[in-house]
Amino acid sequence: MERRIYVLYGGDFTRAPLVQWVLEEGEIEYELRKIDILKGEHRSAEFLAINPAGLVPVLITPDGDALYEVAALMLYLADRHQLTELAPSFTDPDRGLFLSTVFHIAGDVQSEMKRYHFPNRFSLRCEDNVGMQELAKSLVLDRLNVMNTRLAKRGPYVLGTRFSLADFYLSFWVAYLDREAVCLRFPSIAKLHGLVSARPRAARYLEDTEMMAKAYAEMMIQHPSGVIT
Ligand SMILES: N[C@@H](CCC(=O)N[C@@H](CS)C(=O)NCC(=O)O)C(=O)O
Q1: What digits encode the pLDDT tens for the residues 202-224?
Q2: What spacing in Å lies between the alpha carbon of 160 and ligand 1's midpoint?
Q3: 106 CA: nearest ligand 1 atom
Q4: Least confident interval from 143-147, 177-181, 205-209
Q5: Is residue 3's pLDDT more than 90?
Q6: Domains, the chain, ranges and CATH?
Q7: How far is the CA of 69 from the centre of ligand 1 (A)?
Q8: Which atom in ligand 1 lies closest to the alpha carbon of residue 57?
Q9: Which atom of ligand 1 is nearest to the CA of 70?
């Protein structure tokens, strides 16, 4: 019988590196198929047949299921492959704080990051795009402020003295903001980011993400009405 491995649909300017990192930390075999969202490949008939929601990343499991939602993909892989150093197991008392943080990033940080990168989808007039972006950024910073306070009380990691994928998840979005400015303003997040960056597998992805963020910021200046419609 044919041996199947995971297939990850990802690519530049996407959050797929979050899933790649889990796959690599777990030494799980996978194939990466790149989707160019700047060229609109996520809206091609071929990709919509895989994910009708037209969103990247998508993970095809060895059983053939097509899964999406980045946080779900990370949790699924960690649970399925028992990567308990990345995600506390179901019976671990740290599981609650872990899930609470991961779901908060997925629901309340990522949604504002989406608004920040696609302001044209939320504002009625092109001239409101910059204001929409500023609002989204300020809401993300409010949420980071709360996390910073929590990390100052019980850090340096999200789970105190223990690293988990929640730390990489948070650091990834910090890299997608203005990392230097965020770190200057929030010392406990800066400390966390430094610790995550000291992990060689994570460092590579965080550096790439910062480069992507800078390139995307340039594109937003060149295309004030929206980089992707
Ligand atoms: N809630 C989804 C959102 C996925 C998402 O927005 N992905 C972006 C790339 S990071 C995308 O596909 N953007 C294309 C678009 O919105 O048109 C998740 O967290 O995985």
Answers
A1: 999 999 999 999 999 999 999 88
A2: 30
A3: 19
A4: 177-181
A5: no
A6: 6-80 (3.40.30.10), 95-222 (1.20.1050.10)
A7: 8
A8: 20
A9: 20
Nearest CA to ligand 1 atom 2: 69
pLDDT tens digits, one per residue of 79-135: 999 999 999 999 999 999 999 999 999 999 999 999 999 999 999 998 999 999 999
Instruction: Say how far apart CA 57 and CA 76 lie, in whole Å.
Output: 14
Q: Which residue do the tokens 């929409």 mark?
A: 132
Phi first, then psi: what are they for 9, rounded to 5°? -90, 115
CB of 35 closer than 6 angstroms to any ligand 1 atom: no
Q: Does residue 38's CB lie within 6 angstroms of at least one atom of ligand 1? A: no
pLDDT tens per residue, range 74-91 = 999 999 999 999 999 999
Q: How far is CA 39 from CA 10, 30, 167, 171, 229, in A?
A: 14, 24, 31, 27, 11
Tokens of 226: 């929206």
